[in-house]
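Hi F.,

I've been meaning to write this up properly since the lab meeting, where we talked about keeping a consistent format for the predictions we share between groups. The idea is simple: the sequence comes first, exactly as it goes in, then the structure tokens exactly as they come out, then a line or two of notes. No screenshots and no reformatting. I'm using this chain as the first example so we have something concrete to point to.
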Amino acid sequence: MRTRTQLSLAGLAPVVLVGMLVSGCGSSSTTSTGGGGGSPTSGGSGGSGGATTVADGIGHAVNVCSLLPVATAASVSGVPVTVAAEDDTLSYRIYSCDYTTADGTNGFTLDVLADDAAAGYDADVQAFQTVGTAMTPISGLGDKAFSTGGGQTEALFGNVKIDVTNLMNAAAGQTLIRDLQPKL
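Output, unedited:
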């Protein structure tokens, strides 16, 4: 029996090694800063994280908390936030910053969706319509935008969606989006 166990481990080692190598080739965590004037990434990396696609509105990672510091967010929103915590979902290219007060009892979230954002925007509109949420269209903010009475302001810029949630002041939400969008 002991020989059989050693033989199984010896036979399993190449399979594990190949699995590790293949999984390493299939993904990448790109933190490219660019520097090339905003041109899309090209090339044959073949990885899922590095190449710009038609559905990808940005083509690079975004740190929302760095682009819109907590002091700016507090000043614009009127909410005394002092903490900014990045909360990204990289697999969906959702870049998010949670702004909260020191005790965590108040705050709002600013999200950037850079993958299939036009479809995401349309799905949000459909979901709000389905549950009967009143939406107010906003002209002059991106390609299309709306706010709800429930504290959400959302705008679509090409294939990039920016939304502010849990901020009851829709005008402040619009200003935060206007401040962030040119920095992407």
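Notes:
The longest strand covers residues 94-100.
Residues 114 and 149 are 25 Å apart (CA to CA).

If this format works for you, I'll send the rest the same way.

G.
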